[in-house]
Amino acid sequence: MLSEKAVVTDTQTPRGSRQELLHRADELWACDTLEKAESFIRSLPTPISLANYVAGELELPPSPETKFIDSYEPKTGNLLFRIPCTQEADVEKAIGHARTAFRTWSKTTRAERSRHLRRISELLQEHRELFAVWESIDQGKTIARARVEVDRAISNFSYFSTYILHEQTAARMVDGVALTYEHRSPAGVFALISPWNMPLYLLTWKIAPCIAFGCTAVAKPSEITSMTAYLLGILLRKAGLPPGVVNIVLGDGPTTGAALVASPSVDGVSFTGGTQTGMAIRLSTARQIRKRLSLELGGKNPTLIFADAMGPATRGRTLRVAASAAFENQGEICLCGSRIYVDRAVYEQFVAEFAPYVAEKYVLGETMGAVASLQHYQKIRGYLKLAADERATFVLGSVPAAMERHDEGGYWIQPTILTDVSKDSALQKDEIFGPVVTITPFEDEEDAISLANDSQYGLAAVLLTNDAARLRRVGERLEAGMVWANCWLVRELGTPFGGMKDSGTGREGGEYSRDVFTEVRTLHLAA
Ligand SMILES: NC(=O)C1=CN([C@@H]2O[C@H](COP(=O)(O)OP(=O)(O)OC[C@H]3O[C@@H](n4cnc5c(N)ncnc54)[C@H](O)[C@@H]3O)[C@@H](O)[C@H]2O)C=CC1
Ligand SMILES: O=C(O)/C=C/C=C(\O)C(=O)O
């Protein structure tokens, strides 16, 4: 959605020569500390435009009617740079390059693809700080958080570089008559669409398996956070990935994303983002039965705290896990636990200890960043105003100031803890996707499960208790694709990742990603 973004015309963003474009890319690439990046931004007379990466080259989309989108720095509200809003005709050209590359890439050996992925992960490792710096500037997250996410992007490539070397398919004899086995082949050209909350981390979570399994891609990052995708294009070129295997087009959802998803030349879509957008993608592809869809959508995840978890031995862990699940990355992770339910026996104790713990651990500008955009700030503020109107108790935080313009000092929202919120309030139902958590008491185990499952979403859940039998008993009844017990966001990249209910379709990770990116035929061979 573009409501807060000014779309400026081409005449206001001079395209410059190709040489200038490459020169700017080199300048950005050299900014590998926060100081260098900030002084580079300040030195620019007008914001530069980022470029697409198509067929192995950086380029602005050729269509003369291309418009440009302003991109702002969340921590200051300053205009950072512009991105082209790639039009359908140029999206189709990028898809054409991916199709051409597919003919050869799909036939490369696993060892060859593995070498390419390893090289990419090594280069990312070498330029870890460059990517972390720009991610933090562009998205609003802290540099510490950005480093964690670049490390995960590195792992995305290294994990799939080895996975494809070791994967095996089973063969079996059926009735002593036929030898039966699965044969897999790359499924084609994919649209890879990612959101603004963990830009590089989630884009590479799609690109790495896609190319590892022999497919090619046109990737589109969020228009709100395109910087590290642009840098990734430069890195892929340096890594020597054959042209066209990965193409990266910049632009908004309604223009660029919609054209990419709907193109009949695209064989599959892997998407992470909001549930409404997931529905739009389903609708626009409804007549293309053959198109594969892997949709990882929103969440409104419960954290269940049983009384024993607040005992002296595990109280510290309980506070730490519940707080990080609620406030990590400003609460802008689809897996965040934004509905906390606490056993009534320890409810008062938990609320009293949780608020000071969060206030000490999540400090704006130090351990917590700004939210990603003005539009998102306004959305979160809307919910906090609703909380005040509904007479919820603000145990921590308050309704942030109204903000109508970008130049008002950045999009900062305090960690906010609400109690006395009705279970039917939009605050308990909607994905706010910000640093806001509700705390509600439960009476017993049945009540806890029923409150946890009372949601259109089914992505993740956190359980806090020392009772091993309860962990299984409750964990297996929660309507959630991923349940973490006494921990949160512990990830092994082979485990199925994805959600139930309105949180998505399909799973990714290890063999589940293989299912997304390969076509399978079963052969029954009788001699
Ligand atoms: N991982 C998650 O669960 C995420 C959830 N959200 C939720 O969605 C809400 C809205 O955020 P948005 O940035 O608007 O998310 P979004 O779902 O619109 O954006 C995600 C990506 O989809 C693209 N996109 C948008 N419309 C499209 C279309 N019709 N066809 C193809 N691609 C399209 C966007 O350009 C972006 O790259 C957030 O406030 C949050 O609640 C947003 C981002 C991530
Ligand atoms: O893969 C992970 O570890 C985390 C993924 C997070 C999202 O998909 C999200 O926040 O959208």
TrEMBL record:
Tell me if RNA-binding is a UniProt keyword of this record: no
Q: Which residues form the Aldehyde dehydrogenase domain?
A: 66-522
Q: Which UniProt keywords apply?
A: NAD, Oxidoreductase
List the active-site residues: 296
Q: Write down a Pfam family by its short name.
A: Aldedh
- State a single Gene Ontology molecular function: oxidoreductase activity, acting on the aldehyde or oxo group of donors, NAD or NADP as acceptor
InterPro entries cross-referenced by the UniProt entry: Ald_DH/histidinol_DH, Ald_DH_C, Ald_DH_CS_CYS, Ald_DH_CS_GLU, Ald_DH_N, Aldehyde_DH_dom
* Keyword Glycoprotein recorded: no
Gene3D superfamilies attached to this UniProt entry: Aldehyde Dehydrogenase, Chain A, domain 1, Aldehyde Dehydrogenase, Chain A, domain 2
Q: Which domain of life is it from?
A: Eukaryota
Give the family from UniProt: Belongs to the aldehyde dehydrogenase family.
Stated name of the protein: Aldehyde dehydrogenase-like protein
**Species this protein is from:** Thermothelomyces thermophilus (strain ATCC 42464 / BCRC 31852 / DSM 1799)
